[in-house]
Specification:
Layout: H1 2-10, H2 17-24, H3 31-40, H4 47-52, H5 59-64, E1 92-96, E2 99-105, H6 132-141, E3 147-152, H7 160-171, E4 178-183, H8 185-188, H9 195-202, E5 207-212, H10 221-232, E6 237-243, H11 251-263, E7 267-273, H12 287-297, E8 308-313, E9 318-321, E10 327-330, E11 334-338, E12 344-348, E13 386-387, E14 391-392, E15 412-413, E16 421-422
Parallel strand pairs: 2-3, 3-4, 4-5, 5-6, 6-7, 7-8
Antiparallel strand pairs: 1-2, 8-9, 10-11, 11-12, 13-14, 15-16
Helix pairs in contact: 7-9, 11-12
Length: about 500
């Protein structure tokens, strides 16, 4: 019954030039130009979207009403993102390593005039409904894919039964972890969001619903109620916004939109620079406008309300994030930063340490470079051990990147090895060769550490320092590689 209700409302949509003229007047609709425009890209405006248009030329008129500008193609590209080149089977685009775009519906409730996919949306022959099995077979075979985005058209134009078909079929593929649905239904046809639909979606969690809002006025009471139903079903909600001339190219408008989205439990995700798609060139702004908008949002409102500003690179390059220049300069001593308010701050960098002398094991004196044969326990709190504050102990490790000495947190000199280091982690690795270093408890003066000189697991070697050689077998050591101490972090 609920499904019949939203479908009946959909049938009340404006779909013809005659209806446009009747509603807005002959003087405001160029009949011939609009007819040419809708030959290339469908016209449909739902009652909810139509109610948003308060006057000719406002933000919602521009989004939904065809205009003569659509016929003026200069630099626009039909498939500006080169999606078809990355389509291995019908309806599927595989561009990123672990995720795919799956077109499951050819139609939308309302057709946005700036649509990137206008070359095929609205045409069932270009988003075929009888070739989904090829897409499923591809996904079963490609185990690197873990994330599937259902799009179109609008997937929620499908019946509940068809929505469940896609979710259940995808969820049965073991390596698919995340399912996403992209939709504008909560704003264009809020009646579509029903308890029954939410019950279907929640059965196949984790399922994310990513929405599309361009203007704060879209968040009507009916839309917010629809979003509440989705959120109450445990569905994480995100929103994508397209930067559009004459719609939202105003920092105050964008800030209000992001704040309203957060209040409706929708996390702002992306602001897209408008794609250079043929038929939508009149919506494009300078990219500096996007920078201005991010600068006006970041720091001036909740971090949760700050989306990523991206350009989806033409030709299939993927999304590239664009940020204001908060980083001003970097020197050996500091990072110079500009904060959200334009003030300059300096972050001091750690002082560079002087190049230490090579660490040596002196024969017969029970000390390493003059250090006490016992080290303070706190030096073992880091990932690597330092002797005398400068160089690491040549110690066997226990596999977690930390050095162990003789079992009690100390590097001991045995009584009969003339002060050699026993560092095998079990307390019995005494050096037994007269005046010779045995580092693994079973060497006899060859100075090998388990047969090699590898650094402990997880140790990061400094590229600009000499590699260590083996101990020379006569109570002294060749220069050891120096590894920067890392405070105890996991």
């Amino acid at each position: 019954m609920m499904e019949t209700n939203w479908q009946n409302i959909l049938h009340q949509s404006l779909t013809s030039v005659d209806e446009l003229v009747a509603r807005f007047g002959e003087e405001n609709v160029d009949r011939a130009a609009v007819e040419r425009a809708i030959e290339k890209f469908n016209l449909r405006i739902t009652p909810a979207a139509l109610a948003q248009i308060k006057e000719v030329g406002d933000a919602f008129w521009r989004q939904y009403v065809p205009t003569p500008e659509e016929n003026e193609i200069e630099d626009g590209i039909v498939d500006s993102l080169d999606e078809d080149a990355d389509s291995p089977v019908p309806n599927l685009t595989h561009r990123y390593p672990d995720r795919v775009l799956f077109l499951v519906s050819p139609v939308c409730a309302t057709y946005c005039r700036f649509c990137t996919r206008r070359r095929k949306v609205g045409d069932p022959e270009k988003i075929p409904l009888n070739q989904f099995e090829k897409a499923f077979a591809y996904l079963r075979a490609h185990t690197e894919v873990r994330d599937v985005i259902l799009s179109g058209g609008d997937p929620l134009m499908l019946s509940d039964r068809r929505v469940e078909f896609f979710l259940s079929t995808l969820r049965a593929i073991p390596h698919l972890e995340i399912l996403r649905i992209h939709s504008r239904m909560p704003s264009h046809l809020p009646e579509r969001i029903t308890k029954e639909l939410c019950d279907v979606i929640r059965k196949y969690h984790p399922v994310y619903v990513n929405l599309h809002f361009n203007h704060p006025s879209e968040l009507t009471p009916a839309t917010v109620r629809a979003l509440g139903l989705l959120a109450d079903a445990g569905i994480p909600l995100g929103s994508q916004t397209v930067l559009l001339k004459g719609v939202n190219d105003d920092p105050a408008v964008m800030k209000e939109l992001m704040q309203k989205l957060i209040m409706a439990r929708v996390r702002p995700y992306y602001i897209y620079q408008c794609d250079p798609v043929a038929g939508a060139e009149h919506f494009r702004t300078r990219f500096e406008k996007g920078i201005e908008i991010i600068r006006a949002i970041r720091g001036w409102t909740s971090g949760l309300a700050v989306p990523h500003f991206v350009i989806d690179a033409p030709g299939g390059g993927g999304k590239v994030p664009i940020l204001p220049e908060y980083l001003q300069s970097v020197t050996d001593d500091e990072v110079v930063l500009r904060n959200y308010a334009g003030d300059i701050y300096r972050y001091p960098l750690p002082r560079k340490e002087a190049e230490p002398e090579p660490a040596l094991v002196a024969a017969g004196n029970g000390k390493r470079n003059g250090a006490s044969p016992e080290l303070e326990p706190e030096i073992f709190r880091g990932d690597l051990v330092r002797l005398n504050g400068r160089s690491p102990a040549a110690a066997h490790t226990n596999g977690n990147g930390k050095a162990r000495a003789n079992g009690n947190g100390k590097v001991a000199a045995n009584g009969n090895g003339n002060g050699k280091v026993a560092a095998n982690g079990n307390g019995n690795g005494n050096a037994k060769a007269n005046g010779k270093a045995a580092a693994n408890g079973n060497g006899h003066g060859n100075g090998a550490t388990n047969g090699n000189r590898s650094a402990p697991p997880g140790a990061q070697r400094s590229a600009d320092r000499p590699q260590a050689g083996p101990l020379n077998g006569h109570g002294a050591a060749c220069p050891m590689e120096l590894v920067e101490e890392r405070p105890g972090r996991s």
